Amino acid sequence: MEAESCFSIRKNGSHSFSISQADDKYIIEAIKIKFDISNPIREIPLKSGKTLYLIESYKKATLLNIINFLDSGVLCKILYTVFIQYIKFYTKRHTLKNLKEKN
After folding, report:
1. DSSP 40-62
2. Structural domain total, the chain
């Protein structure tokens, strides 16, 4: 998963949050549900043939929910868990590779 997200303050002073993901609509759907975003998911065709799924929200309550979630550290814990799994996989793979090279 490699989503792109952004908090924005527009020239007119309105605030927004947007997030997009190429080809994995279910990720954007889960975010829409988690944060009760009422706006529809936009589907943008890319030159590569993939589809970019984008959702935006301008609602103050939604923005506060997203900010509170990010501020809670939950995301860091999830990313840390994924990182630990990656390190275990990486270490195991390179240890096996080194053993094969020695034999």
Report:
1. PPEEEE-TTS-EEEEEEE--HHH
2. 2
- Residue 61 belongs to domain spanning: 1-72
Report the CATH number at residue 23. 3.10.28
pLDDT in tens, 33-91: 999 999 999 999 999 999 999 999 999 999 999 888 888 887 777 777 777 887 787 77
Residue 3 CA to residue 22 CA, distance in Å, equals 8
Regarding whether 65 and 89 lie in a shared domain, the answer is no
Asked if residue 46 and residue 83 are part of one domain, the reply reads no
94 three-class SS: helix
Looking at residue 44, its pLDDT comes to 96
CA angle 27–18–43, rounded 5-degree value: 60
